[in-house]
Amino acid sequence: MTSDGKLSSVLHLLLHLNEAEAPLTSAQMALAMGSNAVVARRVLAGLRDAGIVSSSKGHGGGWVLTMKPEHVTLKAVYVALGRPKLFAFGNRNDAPTCLVEQAVNSALGQAMAKAETLLLSEMESVTLASLARDFDGRLAAHGMSRSEITHA
After folding, report:
1. How far apart are the first and last CA of the chain?
2. pTM for the full model?
């Protein structure tokens, strides 16, 4: 099953922005996500539209976090990304005439709706601040400081 890593990548970028003392350029953000500056800008555009980040051009410009980390939930980021599909599986045919397939679609639809409700509820309870605390704990457990973190 293929997975979409966009949400994970964006959260990674947001943690970097949260820790940054100055705006980060698209090139710096691209390095953190192992991609290029165009991809970083494209990924962050939806977050800018949602008011989570902002960007400025020119010398000293770049991307900054504009919302407090405790107000940025995983669900808010997911919504800002355009609500990508949560599940890789789906119905074979959305309007089947076969009664067997209708029964299968009904069961799958109900299960996916329940799972989506649960997942979005969980995503609402996780904030960028809680991810940052987790990151800090992991740094401490490894006896490292932020200055030792690199992306190559």
Report:
1. 28
2. 0.82
